[in-house]
């Protein structure tokens, strides 16, 4: 459920999603996904269906559920080659991202990115768009091995940084971010201008919807919703 904002300072830390929240990586991810399928299978099965908010292996399955595991592994490797070779440069930072992080950091909040991207790929984007100086750390998928749920990534961030979930807010754009917040009873600040998909809030969620990163910063710092709306 969505509660009324508290006027006294509530949060000491924020966990930000990367893709679709701070940086729009969809153009490069789509290009790398098409390149991977063409390289491995010789054709594009309809990658416009892919859910780009998912971890890589799940994203590939969302594009083609019929691909056998051996082909999925080849597609994952090919995607990473195409993405790292230059597709990542097709991304652009969302309006107000730097200002949002700057203002929250200046107010003393500890800021982290929790992402389904590999840590190396995420840090490259954060450095490229000059967002890294405002962040204390980045938690993401490893270079090898099975991807972890975002809830587990968030749990690792909370433990390693000694953060209290009660004073930590999650800022994201998708239902995965909502689930990540709910897994540790954290407030979910949903940025509706992000890429999504977002979906409806569950009864167990404490969600606040805002229209922009500027509104997100205003809510965290002052409790004001600005131009935001509730789900």
Q: What is the CATH architecture annotation of the largest domain? A: 3-Layer(aba) Sandwich
CATH class of the largest domain: Alpha Beta
| Total number of helices | 8
Lateral strand order in the biggest sheet: 5-4-1-6-7-8
Tell me the helix content: 25-40%
* Arithmetic mean of pLDDT: 89
Task: Tell me the major beta sheet.
Answer: 6 strands, parallel
Determine the strand fraction and express it as a percent band: 15-25%
| Beginning-to-end CA distance, first to last residue | 9 Å
* Number of E strands: 8
Q: Which residue ranges are poorly predicted, with pLDDT under 50 across at least 5 consecutive positions?
A: 1-8, 226-231
What is the count of structural domains?
2
Describe the protein.
The chain has helices at 26-41, 56-63, 69-85, 97-106, 119-128, 150-161, 175-183, 213-222; strands spanning 13-16, 23-24, 92-93, 110-118, 137-141, 168-172, 187-191, 207-210. The chain is α/β, with parallel strands linked by helices. It folds into two domains: 13-24 and 92-222, 3-Layer(aba) Sandwich (Rossmann fold), CATH 3.40.50; 26-90. Strands 5-4-1-6-7-8 form a six-stranded parallel β-sheet, with helices on both faces. Strand 6, helix 7 and strand 7 form a beta-alpha-beta unit. Helix 2 (56-63) packs across helix 3, helix 4 (97-106) runs parallel beside helix 8 and helix 6 (150-161) packs across helix 7 (175-183). It is globular.
